[in-house]
């Protein structure tokens, strides 16, 4: 949805994890976007794999012609149920191609966790480990005085990635919270157990198991669980197949990102051993990977077996073949682990189905209990989140525990809505050059508080401000040729300082007398005093906060009086 | 005046036992903690008693940084942390943290088990020492404490080698460790951004050398190996297990494949297989090409190179052997060298720098009769070749790095005094920055002149910049403000705001004058004229 903002005015895109970059080519290749994209290395590499798989699966089934007439609102209205209700169909786009993916990825700047990246000198952004996936990050966007945290897709569970960095989120003025778990009621640990036992049961009964999944992410954890489980469950002879155009790359890449893994896996690399046990599964031929069901796979294929393949929506990819192959037998099982798609919708076109269906969504992202714990821990001033997190899910409206609960209540935003953050910027950093600092004369006004008047030249470069000593006034130009010199001299608008304080009349009169005014006469008024200099025909009205000098046509006298008055006042 | 103090405890006008103390804005940081290969007595470790006479090192040092895993940069670490006693943080990159303990253990074995020394650190001490290590990512900003932060940059010297920026407030120091500015067959080139540190501490191993192109050297190397093998000779290449070894292996592997050669290549046992494994797992630290192709073909899985067994040394016929350590001062490489030295058909190729006092250094300086242990004299008849493959920046590279980082001062370590002197002059001439080269134990003080950060009220700043945007943007404008200093905080605000904040009332000063004007015109016309005049 792009009409809300002009993407060519966007300077920077921050990417949280590889699932959040699937639309990147649409932005970088079609919108006139010229800014920079920041992401971590694993995010880019695995994101590339996901896109590659997507493009590959789509291009494998070329369509001779594509219909678009139905997208017309009038026509769409007449179509049967799911199509009729589809929203924003006019926005639906064709899938990008590999060259576009490569072009998009080439625009990404790689960053590391806790790396401080200066943007235009005005703000600093920092990615932090979010604990959800390899290289997944939360982002801190801060200036000298304001700190905004963007928390998206985070996990407090210990799986393979580096644990979430919570400490750095502290002292945020605003915390934007999104990407919470899709299935707040399911416990990932329990789901993994269920996954294993269902898998074992099916295989023992001679059936096959199909696991629709992404080529990276939870699959690493599943393989690790199975690695520990298969021997005890007596499954050591059952082949595991991982079929994806990027299966090999995904398994290889997972082994080289030691620095992005949890502590246990890092220590393994120090030994040196591969961090994930799927290396051993491959070595012992228990796990085999193939780019597609064609070629080698058809020779090696043995049943019963377990197949991991995509796409989890069951709409494209090799998973479609297996659904059709195995769907008719009650012995087989399909196990859904990815939480992003409703399994009922996914299965709908395949009905009627004899195959068993098990739903074990494994979503390690934050649930609401963890959110409230996290918010208590990091204490942001304001929380901003999507509207749906501020009320219980529509299907379980009694579950008031399934919403974000914090003080002050979170501010919510809706799709295509602009939210103004209740935060006002008041200060910014500026640097005073040492020479200028030397020349300042501080004046103690109150105990512990000093003031100094600063007159300096302000230089602003790359949003950094520096105050420098004003250059010395140049010698008056001797000839006309040298007139250009004065270009470097700042325009000096005369400094008109503010005055403060009050004038003690008695002392003022004494001073006047000292300076040769012999006939000073003081009159009291309602608000103050009037000092009369009779000979000079001059009148000075002194009040608490003002002084009025009335003197006629005698400039030297006026200047003299002014200087005497100023002696009693503080200048700013 | 704020100052930065630097004292080398090792590697001051010398190569070996790198150890440099830096004091910056009240923080004390120790850079590297190495041993000296040329000595076997007290001089092999830096003199840590210099840091503090009485009192614990932990209280005095804020952190220790290790640039890479070579022993002349980390060899004294267990001695320092466990025997002298230091419990603070030690920072290094992940590959360094992985490989360092293995080299230390190897070093300990050679010293204690083979040479029978006592009073040396134990395996347990190495383990305890490594527990104090905090691993850092490239470019990650590590907050050591509230004020002190460090950041690692890629150095390209060996796997996991890093340069470190140490920053307190707006003062900063960059320590390069050992680095290499030209990418080689397995690593990329060192890189740093224009971070304008107050001080750049650079190595200067090849301060006076400008090396010919890498390609020529590689061709030379291959030619020499090939010739020797053709005439049935044996080639010994003493290397350190990690680093050059892998680069040369890749080189020979591809050459063997292309030329279809049959002579065996061996890699001395133990460490090396493991070492290759480290390269496979830390492939993100190697160069672009290897990283891109690793899924199809991992460059560190060698087909032609096999593990070496001690018995192979006596096999007849040609062979190429990589053996550790690289300076021929102990271990397997020295054993093989003694066996093969007598035959003029054989060849030893020294691919890296050799520290004074080692056998490697002796044969390179032309010595042909060596006194070995037990007063035995060894006559060297085999050909001795030197090839600079060590991944240090040459003079050109050092200048290039200085240009990249734009430091205000440069300090040279890890090099020979004479060569440093030459480079120092060159740096001062070309960049007009001061360049220092302290000897061990000598303190260099550098004065910095930091600007003072204050908070400016956004209102004032916006008002000023808005004026600045008027027609002539380039022309500097004078701005006025009031600086409020209150318990260590500095705020620059407009004079009006300052008065308001301090609860002071403004005092108005007015003047009134009577002016007599003689004008023949009508009264209101006169008023109008005066008004127009004032308005103009």
From TrEMBL, chain A:
Q: Which Pfam families match?
A: Beta-Casp (PF10996), IntS9_C (PF21382), Lactamase_B_6 (PF16661)
> Known SUPFAM superfamilies for this protein?
Metallo-hydrolase/oxidoreductase (SSF56281)
Q: Which UniProt keywords apply?
A: Cytoplasm, Nucleus
The UniProt entry, under InterPro entries, shows: Beta_Casp, Integrator_9su, IntS9-like_C, Metallo-B-lactamas, RibonucZ/Hydroxyglut_hydro
Location of region: Disordered: 463-487
Q: Where, per UniProt, does this protein localize?
A: Cytoplasm; Nucleus
Query: What GO terms describe the biological role, i.e. biological process, of this protein?
Result: negative regulation of transmembrane receptor protein serine/threonine kinase signaling pathway; regulation of cellular response to growth factor stimulus; RNA polymerase II transcription initiation surveillance; snRNA 3'-end processing
Name the GO cellular-component terms: cytosol; INTAC complex; integrator complex
Domain Beta-Casp per the UniProt entry, residue ranges: 219-347
Q: What is its main location?
A: cytoplasm
Similarity comment text for this entry: Belongs to the metallo-beta-lactamase superfamily. RNA-metabolizing metallo-beta-lactamase-like family. INTS9 subfamily.
Give the protein name, as stated in the record. Integrator complex subunit 9
Q: Which organism is it from?
A: Cariama cristata
Automatic annotation (TrEMBL), chain B:
Q: What is the protein's name according to its record?
A: Integrator complex subunit 11
Give the subcellular location.
Answer: Cytoplasm; Nucleus
Stored Gene3D superfamilies:
3.40.50.10890, Ribonuclease Z/Hydroxyacylglutathione hydrolase-like
Q: Which family is this sequence assigned to? A: Belongs to the metallo-beta-lactamase superfamily. RNA-metabolizing metallo-beta-lactamase-like family. INTS11 subfamily.
Q: Which Pfam families match?
A: Beta-Casp, IntS11_C, Lactamase_B_6, RMMBL
Recall the GO molecular function terms of this protein's record.
hydrolase activity; metal ion binding; RNA endonuclease activity
Q: Does the keyword Zinc apply?
A: yes
Q: Which GO terms describe its biological process?
A: snRNA processing
| Cell cycle in keyword set | no
Spell out the GO cellular component terms annotated for this protein, sorted alphabetically and separated by semicolons.
cytoplasm; nucleus
List required co-factors. Zn(2+)
InterPro entries in the cross-refs: Beta_Casp, INTS11-like_MBL-fold, IntS11_C, MBL, Metallo-B-lactamas, RibonucZ/Hydroxyglut_hydro, RMMBL
Metallo-beta-lactamase domain mapped to chain residues: 16-233
Q: Which organism is it from?
A: Cariama cristata (Red-legged seriema)
Alphabetical UniProt keywords: Cytoplasm, Hydrolase, Metal-binding, Nucleus, Zinc
* Domain Beta-Casp: from-to ranges: 245-363
Q: Which domain of life is it from?
A: Eukaryota
